[in-house]
Amino acid sequence: MSYIKAEEILPEALIRQIQEYADGVYIYIPRKPGTRHPWGQKTHYKAELKLRNDRIRSDYAAGAGIPTLSRKYHLSEKSIRRILQNP
């Protein structure tokens, strides 16, 4: 996430008013309701995780054990079990 200097987008009077509550600190201003992107939509990371998890399930069905899958995919055994339990 990047940030923009308040001076570049906000009126000076509003900046002074905000400074009464948060002087010299970073604040996060959330998006308006209805304008948020679903998690992973912009980076396609959600699709990459699904593909990885499908491969883990496939490897497990082919006989690979949980310790082997843990090493192969660089995940904890607990994470592998969680993936296998939630198709």
What does this structure look like?
This protein has helices spanning 6-9, 12-19, 45-61, 66-73, 77-85. The model has no long low-confidence stretch (mean pLDDT 91). The radius of gyration is 22 Å and the shape is elongated. With 87 residues, the protein is mainly α. It contains 5 helices and no strands.
Set out the fold topology.
Elements: H1 6-9, H2 12-19, H3 45-61, H4 66-73, H5 77-85
Helix pairs in contact: 4-5
Quick summary of this structure?
The chain is 53% helix and 0% strand.
Q: Overall mean pLDDT score?
A: 91
Number of helices: 5
Low-confidence stretches: none
Order of helices and strands: HHHHH
Characteristic terms for this protein:
mainly alpha, 53% helix, elongated, 87 residues, 5 helices
